[in-house]
Amino acid sequence: MKFLDEAKVFIRSGDGGNGCVAFRREKFIEYGGPSGGNGGRGGDVVVEVADGLNTLIDYRYQQHFKAAKGTDGMGSDRHGANAKDIVLKVPLGTQIFDEDKTLIHDFDKVGEKFVLAKGGNGGFGNAHFKTSTNRAPRNANPGLPGEERWIWLRLKLIADAGLVGLPNAGKSTFLSVVSAAKPKIADYPFTTLHPQLGVVRIDGREFVLADIPGLIEGAHEGAGLGDRFLGHVERCRVLLHLVDATCEHAGKAYKTVRAELEAYADTLADKIEIVALNKIDAVSPEELKEQKARLKRASKKTPLLMSGVSGEGVQEALRELSKLIGEAPVSAKAKKAAEHEPEAEAWTPLPR
Questions:
Q1: Could you tell me where the DSSP H helices lie in 169-249?
Q2: pLDDT tens readout for residues 208-258
Q3: Which of 157, 166, 155, 332 lies closest to 261 in space, CA to CA?
Q4: For residues 351 and 126, is the Cβ–Cβ distance under 8 A?
Q5: Domains (ranges, CATH) in the chain?
Q6: pLDDT of res. 35
Q7: Among 7, 22, 166, 351, which is most exposed with the fewest C-beta within 10 angstroms?
């Protein structure tokens, strides 16, 4: 299945059904009163987090979603039926933005639902307007129109740890070695075009590791693959920053990626980070010593030494990740559970 993490869709809730003007007409009843029923409510547009989804690919082939109209009221005091809601299923970690990119809602729990557009209220039939002074009202309300809007769906993968680094730093190789994931691996930059997820098991514990496509200088401004995948890093609790030992200068490579993370969002710069010098099997001991010193000066941390190909240092890196994940905050987003929208006032239509 192709990975798709962004989609633009059009939604429209259903119109309310019209109220009915009718009078009771039966044998031997000379003056039957008003009997027009109310219209039904239009269908809502609801977004729900579904377990098992990991992409927005469904919204590439269908971009328009319209709920049904409520049934019109009928005579004999028959009210119209409410229309069914239309439900958009999205993966965990999806965010909804307005057309101007204003955040509407952020999903972080499986089964969570959000009403994106409410259906129009049904109109009152003439039986509703009967009073002691108006025994035969001949007016009814039309149903209210539904809401419509364009929205953006954007997926941010939820992972415990994220792999970051320049293109060709060995992130995909590392993920394939430590998990059952099968990312594309090749000896050229930007082999990974979409984020990949893998489940890692170490010392009886499990955590989810995400391979984020490589960043280059200017990524936050659109260079390379741009900042499209930087959002996925926001969901990760810990970062494993891989630096290629065969690159020209390990310290400069580290600073390039860090600058892009900081330019995108302050929250990324503050995340817990493990620095590792990768591909140590491909350099001489003298060159390794020099690259390690450069990386230590740039990151102000003692880097781990490892090789995804030979497996050297991999277990140590995983144990360090597992340990820090247990200490890291569960979520960067602190949701106020007590926050609830005020209940809407009952709608009262005005008579014609």
A1: 171-178, 230-234
A2: 888 877 665 554 444 444 455 666 677 778 888 999 888 889 899 888 888
A3: 166
A4: no
A5: 1-155 (2.70.210.12), 161-327 (3.40.50.300)
A6: 92
A7: 351
Give the residue from 52, 45, 49, 44 showing the smallest Cα distance to 107.
49
Cβ contact 20:126 at 8 Å: yes
Angstrom distance (rounded) from CA 77 to CA 97: 42
Beta bridge partners of 210: 162, 197
Which residues 6+ apart lie within 8 Å of 211 measured at CB? 163, 171, 172, 174, 175, 181, 183, 192, 195, 196, 197, 198
> For residue 228, what are its two tokens?
């499209």
HEC string for 293-349: HHHHHHHCCCCEECCCCCCCCHHHHHHHHHHHHHHCCCCCCCCCCCCCCCCCCCCCC
Q: Is 278 helix (H, G, I), strand (E, B) or coil?
A: strand
Q: Are 314 and 276 in contact (CB under 8 A)?
A: no
Q: Which position has the token pair 């230590």?
A: 296
What three-state secondary structure class fits 148?
strand
* Polymer length in residues for the chain: 352
